[in-house]
Amino acid sequence: MRRIDANADIFQFLSNTASDGILDMAWRKLWFSFYFWKDLIPLYGGNNPYTVNDVATRIKIDGTTYQKLFSGRIDSVKNKLVNKLNEGAMSENDAWEEYAKKVRSYAHSYREVIDSGLYHIGFLSPNGDLTELGYRYVDACERSNSAYNNLPMEILRGALLQNGQFAALLHYIFKLSEEKFDNDLYAFTVTNANGTRSFKQQEYLQWLLDYFANTLHIVQQSTLRAGGTRHPLQAEISFMNKLGIVRSNDAGRPAYRIGTGLCIDWPQVETSLQFFNNL
Questions:
Q1: How far apart are CA 159 and CA 63, in angstroms?
Q2: Between the chain's N and C termini, which has fewer beta carbons within 10 Å?
Q3: pTM of the entire structure?
């Protein structure tokens, strides 16, 4: 760290904060308690050979699974640096320096995403304070001791659909898909050697994204998300799947069907919107 900036405060640097203001202090508390926490911090374990420290964050992405942040995939930060160390292509000092820079960059990105996301669904005010809806959600989580029980989940679903305008996104997906498959029932399918058909979901999602961007002009395409490794609409649809708004296949992933496209749970959408409007 001192090689990067000899005068930097290590906690401010790694959390990408610049002051001891209340919002920066709150972010540092979140970052070092739940994301970049003490057991996750080490880059590697043993060094003969070097092994990735594969500890997860303390953020749950469902009722039982904790989010991985710097490890877990071959293109993850820790995995790539450890591979370079084992190949002799990088010194330990250089690896730690690059790791520190990546941590700082991730802290900036995650704060931007979390702040803007919570603001967009109505949980935060423009100055960073919780709104009345935000307080209701936090209170519901604390009372049920979980974000995955009925009340907090319904508040989150409703806020996402109504304030976050995901209900409109689902409407566009449904209407465009309906028109497409009315004209060509087997659009985005391939016939396999045994005569069965498979749905090409990535081709379907790219078609949707292109239509949104180039015809409806309601989204901007970006190649920067996750280093350009994510497929179109992946994050949005995966999130709605986690919330039960999009149906799951047998593997627990978002379901797609020939002649239908994305399988939306419309009864759940309607229930969540009615609940939210009656809050």
A1: 20
A2: C
A3: 0.84
Both tokens assigned to 129: 């304070």
pLDDT interval class at 226 (50, 70, 90): very low
3-state DSSP of 20-80:
CCHHHHHHHHHHHHHHCCCCCCCCEEEECCEEECCCCCCCECCCCCECCCCCCCCCCHHHH
CB 47 within 8 A of CB 88: no
Is it the case that residue 109 has pLDDT exceeding 70?
yes
Tokens representing 255? 């379901």
The residues, ordered by sequence, that sit 6+ positions from 248 with a Cβ below 8 Å of its Cβ are 241, 254, 255
CA distance 42 to 53: 6
Q: Residue with structure tokens 């959408």?
A: 269
What is the C-alpha separation between 247 and 257, in angstroms, rounded? 11
